[in-house]
Specification:
The protein is mostly helical. It has four helices and two strands; from the N terminus they run H-H-H-H-E-E. It folds into two domains: 70 residues, no CATH class; 31 residues, no CATH class. A hairpin with a 7-residue loop joins strand 1 and strand 2.
Length: 118
């Protein structure tokens, strides 16, 4: 069931005030620069994983799979740094191919959670 807002409703006016507020529009230019598309590309790859274009699904199944993909993405979009059993943050040492003998300590992220898929 799709519910729509009429332009004369109070809810529409309130939503329009929020969406068109100068402070939000000003903040959007800082939070979503055109060069940073990684998160969007990752989101699309998650959706394709749950609802592949190569398979034909009914509208209800597509909607359910899309919602499941969105829940999975939201749960795993920003994983915390993994810790040992003692509570010490974990790091992985990476070597650079271009700079021989140069190593970098990178944080290890927690594994993805699939609790929304169970």
């Amino acid at each position: 069931m799709v519910q729509s807002l009429t332009t004369a409703s109070r809810a529409f006016a309130a939503l329009k005030g929020i969406v068109e507020s100068p402070s939000l529009l000003r903040d959007l230019t800082h939070t979503a620069p055109a060069a940073q598309t990684f998160s969007l590309e990752f989101f699309h790859s998650v959706l394709i994983h749950f609802a592949p274009k190569s398979n034909a699904f009914t509208q209800g199944v597509t909607k359910a799979r899309t919602r499941l993909g969105v829940l999975h993405f939201n749960e795993n979009v920003s994983p915390e740094q993994a810790e040992t059993q003692d509570g010490i943050k974990r790091y992985k040492i990476k070597s650079s191919k271009s700079r021989k003998g140069h190593y970098t300590a990178c944080p290890v992220k927690e594994d993805r959670s699939y609790s929304t898929c169970q």
